[in-house]
Amino acid sequence: MLEFDDIQHILLMRVPALTGRYEFMSFRNPTGGRAWLSGIREKVQSAADVRASAEKEKRWVTVAFTWNGLRALGVDETSLATFPEEFRQGMVARAEMLGDTGANHPDNWVGGLASPSLHAIVILFAADEASRARSVMEHNKFVAQCKDVEVLSSLDLQAVPPFTYAHDHFGYRDRLSQPVIEGSGEVPTPGSGAPLKPGEFILGYPDESGPPANLPQPEILSRNGSYMAYRRLQEHVGKFRDFLRQNAQTPGEQELLAAKLMGRWRSGAPLVLAPDKDDPVLGADPQRNNDFNYKQMDPQGYAVPLGSHMRRMNPRDTAHNMNRRRMMRRGATYGPLLPEDTPEDGVERGIAAFVICASLIRQFEFAQNVWANDPNFHELGNERDPVIGNQDGTFEFKIPKRPIRKKITGLPAFTTVRGGAYFFLPGIKALRYLATLNGVR
Fold this sequence. Notes:
The protein has 441 residues and is α+β, with helices and mostly antiparallel strands. Helices cover 25% and strands 17% of the residues. It has helices at 30-40, 47-53, 67-73, 77-80, 85-89, 95-98, 129-145, 219-222, 237-247, 251-262, 280-283, 309-313, 360-372, 428-435; strands at 19-27, 59-65, 120-126, 149-158, 226-235, 328-334, 350-357, 396-399, 406-409, 415-425. The strands form three sheets. Strands 2-3-1-4 form a four-stranded antiparallel β-sheet. A hairpin with a 6-residue loop joins strand 8 (396-399) and strand 9 (406-409). Helix 1 packs antiparallel against helix 14. The relative contact order is 0.18. The model has no long low-confidence stretch (mean pLDDT 96).
């Protein structure tokens, strides 16, 4: 049975937030860090809390720590050494393997996210602007009272209008293919696969291969916890629109090209089920918009190109051991909408998301290294993910078609990594454990 009262809510559910803020924290000494945590942990809601009050609440708080942050709180070296190597090293040290080179290199990251002084993140989700302002005011007032604690940087979040469904700045419908955790009470939508063992996402439970193993110690620290890979991706909306106009003649052809890059129409309708024209009704129907496979329905990629973003990041029945590669995504968009027919305005906008998983190396890092950035994925030869892959102008994108396939060369980068980090998401009891290390209360 899942211990809903000991699992931070972000791991099991989405809250109805339209805005919020991420605040990235640094502790000058353990006493200051624990004092901050002692106060903020009272605001952190468990999954049980949110289930009971989601309709009434307008503000939600999540707290997570880097490995350096756990050390800064005073976790002893013996315990720190039990965390997996990739988490101990951090995202910056693993940049080359993740494809974070060139413009994506940590040297170019903003907000101090590449600094070893990044110790924690507090996620302040809010239902509206007024609730966000209240959360930010209260947190800033609290931090001002905490000696030896500072906010390294912050990022304001804002849903992209219209608000009838979640979508990114490119206009693609989001949140369509998420795994379901066994015991969560959630029912998978058709095509999403059977519920997965909790241990694929939550530490201390059996995973798809068997009982839990190699957990960080002591058990109270890791039980009901997880890992989060944070990625801040700037979306170059103007460049994307220019690319579509340069490589397709009519508005209809441009929309088809956009769909080929993603694997879905912007409405959310999958090309497997709507290969020739958009079907917004299908795209909005959760009982149908994810109900397809590739091996039987589109083996050659005539509907969804083999190198499309959707096919790379979730190969479904064409990949081995998929149940051990699934990831939970959370997060939000940031920056203002760039209206149609408006040139690039130089204002940063994009997605600031978390990939939640029990194994950073087996789940997130595999996806980045193999699915997103391996040029020979699906034996394509010279392609990377057209949306999130590290594009430097030397890669291509092939669209299978009879009698002659279309090949676009010199694919530009539509996204740039502006920051990232590996965080440990403790359970509720673990937050109290961390706040009271060395008997401090």
